[in-house]
Design goal:
It is built from 13 helices and 23 strands. By secondary structure, it is of the alpha+beta class. It folds into three domains: 247 residues, Rossmann fold (3-Layer(aba) Sandwich); 116 residues, Immunoglobulin-like, CATH 2.60.40.4290; 99 residues, Nuclear Transport Factor 2, Chain: A, CATH 3.10.450. Strands 2-3-1-13-14-15-19-20 form an eight-stranded mixed beta sheet, sandwiched between helices. It has a four-stranded antiparallel beta sheet with strand order 10-9-6-12, with no helix packed on it. Helix 3 runs parallel beside helix 8, helix 5 runs parallel beside helix 6 and helix 7 runs parallel beside helix 9. The protein starts with 18 loop residues before the first strand and ends in a 6-residue tail after the last strand. The model has no long low-confidence stretch (mean pLDDT 92).
């Protein structure tokens, strides 16, 4: 029996609906991209709706709400299914608790898993249990030792969130507290005292509670407020051009809800998306305008100011106005809050992508928004026309349809990249094809490889044509794939590079857009 490789390699369509949010939260991993698949999971990892006062920040830049939880909530409300969260918490620290013996020596130090004031709400409780017989640490026979029941409690709710029963304080025992706490979702443990067995300080009866605090006690754990500069840095726009999203290959829509400044956040976002994945450029940034911009004239002045730098290649879009929603962080059940549109719109992007495809503009009557109560302003057709000419997409309210996204323009002035679906399908093609031709890296560089690449990519493009993702009555009118000695010169071959030209006719506008891809392949073997 002989195994025969397939005649053509199938290219899998890349994800286009996975979002990434950058901002503040009560808890959660700091400075890394963490995936969540529901708002319930977000609240479990990062906490719920809060105000800056709830965070006990060392310094506050302003009294703006904490928009990240609202944006994630709006994303899932409007059709989002998966997103990454990048929590920013500059200068924040982790709460600690020292567990001692009766002689006062510290056995081990417990540290809250994540930075922030939330750690002060933790209580570590130890209660003596029945003796147990375990294998001797020396390996010779068995010994009888004390066992304990330990629990991690949220003092504000007077509720145990983790329980570990029957643990010992013998290091080599598989049921020891040191082994058990490695499984904790809330705390880390660091052993500080030498010896095989430790005896925690406990009263003769009952239990002992250890509270968490800063080190030294009484210090600030939440750090300072997140600035626009912090967000720019998280988007790779600082002195160190790195981002927590650099290693995330499936993210396609990025935003920093509520962070605007004088346009520097949007500019950093557009630029980052253009160079995402080592300049593959497969992401798209949704920017917000300032919350106090509440008329079309101010909106157009903002995007035409010297400090706002639109991206010529259309790697982002702006939406206006903000949206009123229920203020879940308020004790007043009737309180409302103005929310940035980026979270709502990203959910719409995901919904349209999943239902219709990335080539469909995320706008129109099927782009209805859920979760908000009303728009901050209701624009007329004339006002809509003013912002549309400046590349700002309108949110409108229509009888029978409610609140809808009513615009699909990028920030680019170039007619080639003027429309959101054109830029995003180009991103989709680059990401899908790049990931789908990795098999070619170590193949011999010659016509058989070029033919295989043409066949593989051509099959992928033909499938898109059949889904009506491209314009044209025939495949030849809709796309082309060129990979031969003209695209890959002799010099390229010597460098181990294969160049591929993929042209496609987007649904709007009608002209061809050409994307050039290069793939490093193996050099000649001697």
């Amino acid at each position: 029996m002989i195994e025969v490789p397939p005649a053509t390699r199938t290219i899998t369509a890349a994800s286009t609906s996975t979002a990434a949010f950058i901002g503040m939260s009560k808890k959660g991993p700091v400075g890394i991209a963490t995936i969540v698949t529901s708002f319930l999971e977000f609240t479990d990892i990062f906490g719920g709706f809060i105000t800056k006062d709830d965070l006990n920040l060392s310094t506050k830049i302003n009294n703006d709400p904490v928009y990240l939880p609202y944006a994630v909530w709006a994303f899932f409300q409007n059709g989002g299914r998966k997103c990454y969260i990048v929590r920013l918490a500059p200068d924040a620290k982790k709460a600690v608790a020292n567990i001692t013996q009766s002689d006062g020596q510290v056995i081990f130090k417990l540290t809250a898993r994540d930075e922030g004031d939330w750690g002060k709400d933790l209580v570590f409780r130890i209660q003596k249990s029945d003796p147990v017989t375990i294998r001797s640490p020396t390996g010779a026979g068995s010994i009888k030792v004390n066992s304990y029941n330990v629990s991690i409690i949220l003092s504000s709710k007077k509720q145990a969130i983790e329980v570990f029963n029957g643990v010992t304080f013998v290091k080599e025992d598989p049921t020891s507290i040191y082994t058990s706490l490695k499984k904790s979702r809330f705390i880390n443990i660091e052993i500080l005292l030498a010896g095989d067995e430790h005896k925690p300080e406990l009263p003769e009866t009952g239990s002992k509670d250890y509270t968490f605090d800063s080190e030294p006690a009484g210090g600030n754990l939440s750090g300072r407020d997140v600035s626009n500069e912090d967000v720019v840095n998280a988007l790779g726009g600082g002195q160190i051009p790195e981002s927590p999203l650099d290693s995330i290959t499936d993210v396609s829509i990025i935003a920093a809800p509520g962070y605007v400044g004088e346009g520097e956040v949007a500019s950093a976002g557009f630029n980052y998306c253009e160079k995402h994945r080592n300049f593959l450029g497969d992401a798209f940034f949704i920017a917000d305008l300032k919350s106090d911009i509440q008329n079309p004239q101010d909106a157009t002045r903002f995007v035409t100011s010297d400090t706002f730098q639109p991206n010529i290649n259309g790697y982002g879009a702006i939406y206006f106005p903000w949206i009123y929603g229920k203020d879940f962080a308020s004790t007043d059940p009737n309180a409302t809050i103005a929310l940035p549109p980026s979270g709502f719109v990203r959910g719409i992007y995901a919904k349209i992508d999943n239902n219709r495809g990335v080539w469909k503009a995320p706008a129109g009557t099927e782009a209805g928004m859920s979760g908000g109560t009303s728009l901050v302003i209701n624009m007329t057709d004339q006002q809509h026309g003013i912002i549309n000419l400046k590349g700002i997409n309108a949110l409108r309210t229509f009888v029978g349809y409610g609140k809808v996204v009513w615009g699909a323009r990028t920030v680019s002035n170039d007619v080639m990249w003027r429309y959101v679906p054109v830029r995003r399908i180009a991103n989709f093609l680059k990401s899908s094809i790049y990931d789908g031709i990795q098999w070619a890296v170590f193949e011999p560089k010659d016509e058989p490889l070029w033919a295989a690449l043409r066949l593989s990519i051509g099959g992928f493009m033909l499938n898109l044509f059949k889904q009506k993702a491209l314009q044209g009555a025939t495949p030849d009118q809709a796309f082309f794939v060129k990979c031969d000695s003209e695209t890959t010169t002799h010099y390229d071959q010597e460098q181990g590079i294969v160049n591929i030209l993929v042209g496609f006719a987007p649904l709007k506008p009608a002209e061809f857009v050409v994307v050039k891809l290069s793939q490093k392949v193996a050099e000649d073997q001697i």
